[in-house]
Amino acid sequence: MSDQKINSERRNLILATSAAGGVAMAATAVPFVASLAPSERAKAAGAPVVADIGKLAPGEKMVVKWRGKPVWILRRTPEMLASLEKVAEKVSDPASEKSEQPEYARNTARAIKDEYLVVVGICTHLGCSPSDKIKPGAGEGMSADWQGGFLCPCHGSQFDLAGRVFKAMPAPTNLEIPPHTYLSDTSILIGEDSKEA
Ligand code: FES
After folding, report:
1. Ligand 1 centroid distance, CA of 27 (Å)
2. Residue to mutate (ligand 1; options 152, 166, 175; most atoms within 8 A of CB)
3. Cα angle at 90 between 89 and 91, to 5 degrees?
4. Are 141 and 135 in contact (CB under 8 A)?
5. Of the candidates 143, 169, 166, the residue with the CA atom closest to the CA atom of residue 156
6. For the chain, is the Cβ count within 10 Å smaller at the N or the C terminus?
7. pLDDT score of 149 more than 50
8. Ligand 1: which residue has its CA nearest to atom 1?
9. Statement: residue 150 has pLDDT above 70
């Protein structure tokens, strides 16, 4: 065998070995990355999700999906919080005694931190998605004394800015508050209570 042929066979062998090494690296890298994030199936089954609220301005609302449900996070202004007292006589369960919610949300604002409403955006009547009617007054088609809240388009249930249902509405209870905990000032874990709670 000539020197030239031996060299060319060695070079092919080296190339083949490095290519196989590359494949092996790629194959081991994928399961490692996949193991860091909960699978889509795990999320649908109920794995908690993290909501980044760092960019949520006062008065704004964002939506996070948890267990296939929309979870609303509304950053309430002092005026919005003041509206909760104004409608206390008009809502059917002001202290949320009949409602689905964790113990730490059993207060007027129905929240761990008054500023943030974290609530499942599904009507407790037949499961429609209520619309935002956040601005007070008649501007969004509500009555002149409207203080801000949500309106379910299906059968007309109205909720205040803490998700409390008004009296004589089809929805039997306030909107559900999901289990949640603050991981920091700018992130909320939806779907899990604080370990210290
Ligand atoms: S589903 Fe909301 S009022 Fe009926």
Report:
1. 50
2. 152
3. 100
4. no
5. 169
6. N
7. yes
8. 126
9. yes
Cross-sheet strand order for the sheet of 131-133: 131-133, 149-151, 158-160
> Measured in angstroms, how far is the CA atom of residue 106 from the centroid of ligand 1?
23
- Domain ranges (residues) in the chain: 1-36, 42-190
What separation in Å is there between the alpha carbon of 143 and the centre of ligand 1? 19
- pTM of the entire structure? 0.78
pLDDT in the model for residue 17 = 41
Is any atom of ligand 1 closer than 6 Å to the C-beta of 122? no
Of ligand 1's listed atoms, the one at least distance from the Cα of 123 is 2
Is the shortest distance between the CB of 123 and ligand 1 below 6 Å? Answer: yes
CA distances from 151 to 62, 115, 169 (A): 17, 21, 11
How far is Cα 110 from Cα 95, in angstroms, rounded to an integer? 9
For 59, list phi and psi in degrees, rounded to 5. Answer: 90, -10
189 pocket-lining for ligand 1 (C-beta < 6 Å) = no
Residues with catalytic function: 155
| CA–CA gap between residue 92 and residue 166 (Å, rounded) | 5
Atom of ligand 1 nearest to the CA of 128: 1
What is the Cα–Cα distance from 66 to 52, expressed in whole angstroms? 14
Reported CATH class of domain 42-190: mainly beta
